[in-house]
Structure formats: structure tokens, C-alpha cells
Amino acid sequence: MESMELMTAKEVAEKVFRNKIGYQVIIRLAHAGDIAHIQVGRKIFFTSKAVEAYLQGQLTQTVNKNEKIISAPSVPEIKKII
Q1: How far apart are CA 79 and CA 62, in angstroms?
Q2: Side-chain half-sphere of 29: how many Cα atoms within 13 Å?
Q3: Burial 3-13 (b: 16+ CB within 10 A, else e)
Q4: DSSP for 34-53?
Q5: Alpha-carbon distance 5 to 47, whole Å?
Q6: 8, 45 Cβ separation under 8 angstroms
Q7: Mean pLDDT over the full length of the chain
Q8: Of 8, 15, 20, 50, whose Cβ has the fewest other Cβ atoms within 10 Å?
Q9: Residue 31 has pLDDT above 90, yes or no
Q10: Residue 73 above 90 pLDDT?
Q11: What is the mean pLDDT of the segment spanning 16-29?
């Protein structure tokens, strides 16, 4: 079995997000089921793969939202509406 590094919410906030968000946000995301985690008692741990999967999902959602903006009606179609 391959060993995996486990990080606490504070370590994820520091290493991955460079303290741009607080560790409490990471914990809330875990409790909401947005980031896969391992809970041992009251301690919550994350793998780098789980954090990477979360970030990839967020990136995909952002790209999909931008596609909607790109596929907005053209100027002649907007003029017809007005």
C-alpha cells in the first residue's frame, strides 16, 4: 500500500492556499462534503489528492460558468429583444 501524506485543515490552508483562506473554511468544506477527508475522533485530515480533486472541480465549474457567458446572445439578437 502506498503511503499518503495527511494534512490538517491548517496545513491545507497554509500549503495549498498560502493562507489566503482560513483553515475554518477548509473545515466547513469538509463538513459540507465538498472535500473528501478522513476524520479520526475530532481531528480532520486531507490527502493532497482530495484537495486536488476539489480544486479541479472548482476549476471545471468556473470554466462552465464562463462558457455560458461566452455563448450569450449576439448583438443583433439583443437589439431584437430591446
Answers
A1: 28
A2: 21
A3: eeebbebeebb
A4: SS--EEETTEEEEEHHHHHH
A5: 6
A6: yes
A7: 81
A8: 20
A9: yes
A10: no
A11: 94
